[in-house]
């Protein structure tokens, strides 16, 4: 595993404290509803500090892999018992270390905003999903309001510094729709930032 930078260590140390209020009021209830749909062999990309761990059902019979690019985040997840829930790996979302059609479920929550090669990551998710697999997703996206979208674009270079590369202005939902189709989609707005969440299925007949 690579040696972590001090911004990575600092971000992991403070992440849970900085997001506690939003988790309690907004994110955790959505995580719980999403994870009710997890089934079969599961890959979670961007496990972070393990925020989804409490919501995995005990009845899931397949194997589970948890991947993150940040070693400090992985260490935080280990403290929450992630190792008992499945196998923990350090790796890149844009170059997943798995064969084609390996998983029934891929879980991605608040991750694609921070991935460097994010469209490559979306293609990789589709590649490792089985034809009848599903993507469980929650992500903030670019606003459809032109004024707010412009503000997101202006703020992103500054916001990326303390937030480990998070982009406020990515049209992640539209890019996902090149490779997936929604079967369940909900949305909400938090501090003028739109979020989407739900279940997506891989489109067939597309190049890898």
TrEMBL record:
GO molecular function terms attached to this record: S-adenosylmethionine-dependent methyltransferase activity
GO annotation terms (biological process): methylation
Highest rank taxon of the organism: Bacteria
Annotated ranges, domain Methyltransferase type: 43-136
Keywords linked to the UniProt accession: Methyltransferase, Transferase
Entry-linked InterPro entries: Methyltransf_11, SAM-dependent_MTases_sf, Thiol_S-MT
Keyword 4Fe-4S among UniProt keywords: no
Protein name as catalogued: Class I SAM-dependent methyltransferase
Lineage: Bacteria, Pseudomonadati, Nitrospirota, Nitrospiria, Nitrospirales
């Amino acid at each position: 595993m690579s040696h972590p930078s001090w911004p990575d260590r600092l971000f992991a140390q403070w992440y849970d404290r900085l997001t506690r209020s939003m988790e309690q009021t907004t994110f955790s209830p959505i995580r719980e509803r999403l994870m009710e749909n997890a089934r079969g062999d599961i890959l979670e990309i961007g496990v972070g500090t393990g925020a989804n761990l409490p919501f995995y059902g005990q009845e899931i019979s397949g194997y589970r892999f948890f991947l993150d690019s940040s070693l400090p985040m992985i260490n935080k997840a280990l403290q929450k018992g992630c190792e008992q829930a499945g196998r923990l790996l350090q790796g890149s979302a844009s170059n997943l270390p798995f064969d084609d059609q390996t998983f029934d479920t891929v879980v991605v929550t608040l991750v694609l905003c921070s991935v460097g090669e994010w469209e490559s990551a979306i293609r990789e998710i589709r590649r490792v999903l089985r034809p009848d697999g599903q993507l469980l997703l929650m992500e903030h996206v670019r606003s459809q309001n032109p004024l707010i979208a412009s503000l997101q674009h202006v703020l992103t270079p500054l916001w990326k510094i303390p937030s480990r590369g998070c982009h406020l202005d990515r049209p992640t939902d539209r890019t996902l729709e090149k490779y997936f189709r929604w079967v369940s989609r909900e949305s909400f707005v938090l501090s003028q930032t739109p979020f989407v969440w739900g279940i997506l299925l891989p489109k067939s007949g597309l190049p890898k």
